[in-house]
Amino acid sequence: MTLHIDEHLNYECVQCGRSCTGWNVWLRDELAERLKELPITLRVIQERGQAFERVDGILKMYRDDAHPACGYLNEQKLCNIHATLGFEVKPKTCRQFPFFLTRLPDGQVRAGASHCCTAVRGGLGPPLSQSRAELEDLLAQGAQMREIESEIEIYPGHSQSYDSVLAFEKHFEQQLADGGWGRALESALVSLATPLAGPWQPYPSLIEQLPLFSQIMTMSLLKPCLNDHSRELWQRIDQAFLQGGELEVPEYAWKASVADLDLLIQEGVGSRFDTRIDDYRRAIWFRKGHLLAGNLVAGLLLLWSLPGILRLLTALEAWKQQSEPAEEHFSRALDTVEMSLVAHSQNGELLVQKMSHHLVAMAQIQG
Ligand code: SF4
Fold it and tell me: How confident is the model at residue 367 (pLDDT cuts 50, 70, 90)?
């Protein structure tokens, strides 16, 4: 096994506690048994009524709206399990954060890191490669990894070998070097990357439809990024975008037309964070995120849609604080996208899979 670490990322924990807040932390029954009588657990029970709960038969740390953080996170933003029983005892998810591991069919392991981590997002600390010993320990203990299969679905109903996909990646990276992310992704998508290694033959109807498709993608990706997943809100968002009417997003205190929001994005955010967005795309590409979204076209769609959703969320974050879009707003938008769409939730994956079906159908109607 060869371990390849993303050399463009940096990481050193700044003990912000972000990774202990807003997540479901699953744990084994044996760990709960070991913890249950300890003062660190009694303190959690006293504060929130219970320390653990079972969801679909699996045990997790108890959290509720009043207590969104893990109960074992202490006032110094440190883990009480780590402090009392040692690093090795922490649940596997916690020991492994923020590393993101992908095993490839040739046995290679790619190590990236989650952009939900404050240090990774801010480029704080030494290069990630300095975490090699820690990563090797995790791998020796059976770390959790995403697996890339030797047959890859390119789009529904059409698969190719991993070797063909490697040839595609080589051609794509050449396009990337020549024209940047936007052009390389568009060129792969409008031809549905066929034949895979290039040259790619575009479908004219897909070229025409792409601007509209881009708007639909942004609107669709916004919905899983919100805390309110109610059907009513989602329907209101669809209506506002499709009919150009008033858009209400209570979480961001936004209540104005879609055109006003467009203006805020164009004039407030513009292309200011485009280099950061490309850095994020590169990190996803390194950890093979484009092969982890159900099919290749879905993975490419996700990468292609990132500027739209990141600019939109950055504008909304700034609006919520009634200030000019700035780094802190972009950083929060990036955290939300990584958490809700890319690395830590299946919502984005399912959504881009659905959209890949639409794109393929549009190409087939024309073809
Ligand atoms: S989010 Fe990153 S920096 Fe913050 S506590 Fe977790 S690992 Fe440390």
Answer: low
Q: How far is CA 237 from CA 242, 245, 292, 312, 347, in A?
A: 8, 9, 28, 13, 17
The number of helix segments (H) and strand segments (E) in the chain equals 14, 10
Residues 291 and 226 placed together within one structural domain of the fold: yes
Residues 230 and 164 in one domain: yes
CA of 78 to the centre of ligand 1 (A): 10
The model's pLDDT over 98-136, given as tens digits with 9 standing for 90+, comes to 999 999 999 999 999 999 999 999 999 999 999 999 999
Instruction: Name the band, by pLDDT with cuts 50, 70 and 90, for residue 264.
Output: confident
Q: How far is CA 331 from CA 97, 119, 159, 253, 289, in A?
A: 18, 11, 36, 19, 20
Whether 278 contacts 136, CB under 8 Å:
no
pTM for the predicted model, two decimal places: 0.91
The reported pLDDT for the residue numbered 176 is 95
Cβ(14) to ligand 1 under 6 A? Answer: yes
Same domain, 158 and 254: yes
Nearest-CA residue for atom 6 of ligand 1 = 19
Give, for ligand 1, the residue of 9, 10, 11, 18 to mutate: max count of ligand atoms closer than 8 Å to Cβ: 18
Ligand 1 centre to CA of 16 (Å) is 5
Claim to verify: residue 103 and residue 223 sit in the same structural domain: no
